[in-house]
Design a protein that fits this description.
Layout: E1 13-24, E2 29-34, E3 44-47, H1 48-53, E4 64-72, E5 75-85, H2 88-91, H3 102-107, E6 110-119, E7 124-128, E8 136-139, H4 140-145, E9 156-164, E10 167-175
Antiparallel strand pairs: 1-2, 1-4, 2-3, 4-5, 6-7, 6-9, 7-8, 9-10
């Protein structure tokens, strides 16, 4: 006798490609924005258990994902990840030899910085940027939006700045893997 849970769900699955809008590793989920041909279904939930089960350990906003999705009570959810490609925007910082040129960074408005301190419980921290006297504020939502689980004192990063109400604010952050801790 078939139960509700053992119903053949393969007939309910749809293959969809899209872009990761955001993924918060701490919360354990994120959302995918489907490609134009499936925009009508809205954002698709991606849970960390699906990510891990299908062999993926990292995911970032902007990554391109192809998956089988299933409609649930609260909308569509990823059932199985078929493939994932790293964000092109993340790779535009790198030259073919894996180095990041200062000219490339400057053209894109991205600055190298070092984490002064960051407190997860307070949900914010400050960065030091050469040539900027004031400390640069960073909020935990910016860290999460850029799919990082956390940042740590003396960690080398790249940031994009904006002028906040109280001074310079980081609106994007990327790990600087070419530098070790300062």
């Amino acid at each position: 006798m078939a139960t509700k849970d053992s119903v053949n769900i393969t007939s309910e699955l749809t293959e969809i490609s899209g872009v990761v809008k955001w993924f918060d590793i701490i919360r354990g989920f994120g959302f995918i924005s489907p490609s134009d041909s499936h925009k009508h279904i809205g954002d698709i939930l991606l849970h960390v258990t699906c990510l891990r089960r299908d062999g993926y350990h990292t995911i970032s906003a902007g990554d391109i994902i192809t998956s089988m999705v299933q409609k649930g009570e609260c909308g569509y959810q990823v059932f199985k990840i078929l493939s994932m490609a790293k964000s092109v925007s993340r790779n535009v910082l790198m030259s073919p030899d894996g180095e990041i040129s200062n000219e490339t960074l400057h053209m894109r408005g991205i600055l190298p910085a070092v984490v002064k301190w960051f407190d997860r419980s307070k949900k914010f921290g400050f960065l030091a940027v050469k040539g900027i006297e004031k400390d640069v504020f960073i909020h935990i939502e910016t860290v999460r939006k850029c799919s990082l689980s956390g940042i740590y004192p003396k960690q080398a990063v790249f940031i994009r700045l904006d002028n906040g109400a109280k001074g310079p604010t980081a609106v994007e952050i990327y790990l600087n893997t070419s530098q070790s801790y300062a």
